[in-house]
From TrEMBL:
The keyword Transport belongs to this UniProt entry's keyword annotation: no
A Pfam family matched in the record: TetR_C_11
GO MF annotation: an example: transcription cis-regulatory region binding
Protein keywords: DNA-binding, Transcription, Transcription regulation
HTH tetR-type domain ranges (all copies): 21-81
InterPro entries with a match to the protein in the record: DNA-bd_HTH_TetR-type_CS, Homeodomain-like_sf, HTH-type_TetR-like_transc_reg, HTH_TetR, Tet_transcr_reg_TetR-rel_C_sf, TetR_C
Record protein name field: TetR family transcriptional regulator
Region (Disordered): 1-22
UniProt cross-references to PANTHER family, sorted A to Z: HTH-TYPE TRANSCRIPTIONAL REGULATOR RUTR, TRANSCRIPTIONAL REGULATORY PROTEIN-RELATED
Amino acid sequence: MSPTRAARAAADAQSRPRVEGEREQEIFDATIDILAELGYDRLTMDAVAGRAKASKATLYRRWNGKAQLVIDALTSTKEPMTAPDTGDLREDLLGAFCGMGGLTDQRQIAIFGSVVTAITRDAEFAEAFRRGVVGPKKAIATEMFRRAQERGELRDDLDLELISSALPGIVLHHTFLLGEPPTNQLIAKVVDQLILPAVIRG
């Protein structure tokens, strides 16, 4: 986004009345539900308004369109994400990527699949998605590898930014391209057979 457009967007956001508290969360929840069920392309402000029992005018006073609403809904978290810190890289990786919010969370996978087309077609949406959704998750993975390296578990010559993308990249490839469900067993196999052998100090 250009500086001029960014400034204009910020000014627009400041000028709009803010929907706050539980009402805001209800709108976010409705947005995420529809996104997971129908996908980004079929999500409309009308549908969100109906699901959240809000007027469309209320939505447009706060958000200028569905892209901004979806990004705000995806980046709104009740609790900040933190990296597991068990003292063991394997356990940290399994703790972060298995279960709720991880790669085996069917809702999260459905949401990711629903925005893939928007990421490829809408540069501003893609930038916001990478910054607000992908960025924090990648930072958690990088932090786990950094701590393991500081403990002496890992080789010193690793590119931590690169290796932190390997596990989700492999699992999502299996999920979306090969049709293999993202199970705890798959994640453990990738960790044990690919990630750890590639990074552990010999």
